[in-house]
Design a protein that fits this description.
single chain, alpha/beta, five-stranded mixed β-sheet
């Protein structure tokens, strides 16, 4: 797992709900550029197929992913439903569906007491909430914005075990 890269912070690209392939949909070029510039890519589910996961891995940084509700059976056998990733001294839990929005922050903090953050997807709604040093983050979707005004993804920087998230608008 990526730790500190030399003396610089660890940069993490965060995506979810890509739902590829579907029609002529593809990752926006800016998304690909940000993934390529990162030390690690986190995908919070609904990749869709193993071929798409392999295409993401070919972009460059190591990929850590969980399966979502629309992922193929093959992908569900390949990826866990949840996992914890360590990067730059931070522990980040990942799952696809974090449940109802009501009391989500508290519920995830109780479910994952030994992590610094939880990354999730499913709703396609970008979200960043914090309670003290614990954070939850949904990057939205770079390909399927649904009722959101923009396609989005996330970037995170981890330095000395502290993680800072940013929602990145792609259009």
């Amino acid at each position: 797992m990526p730790g500190r890269v030399g003396s610089r912070p660890v940069r993490i690209a965060v995506i979810s709900d890509t739902h590829l392939p579907r029609g002529d949909r593809e990752l926006p070029q800016r998304c690909v550029e940000l993934i390529r510039s990162a030390d690690l890519l986190l995908h919070a589910g609904d990749v869709a197929t193993l071929d798409v996961l392999l295409e993401l891995e070919a972009i460059g940084p190591p990929v850590r992913a969980v399966h979502g509700n629309v992922d193929s059976d093959e992908l569900r056998r390949t990826l866990p439903a949840e996992r914890v990733v360590e990067a730059g001294g931070a522990r980040i839990a990942m799952l696809h569906d974090a449940g109802p929005s009501q009391r989500r922050l508290r519920r995830l903090r109780l479910r994952f007491p030994d992590v610094d953050a939880v990354v999730f997807g499913h709703s396609h709604i970008p979200l960043h909430e914090a309670d003290g040093d614990f954070q939850i983050f949904n990057p939205g979707s770079p390909t399927d914005r649904r009722r959101q005004p923009h396609h989005t993804m996330g970037m995170a920087t981890v330095e000395r075990g502290r993680i800072a998230f940013e929602i990145v608008r792609l259009d």
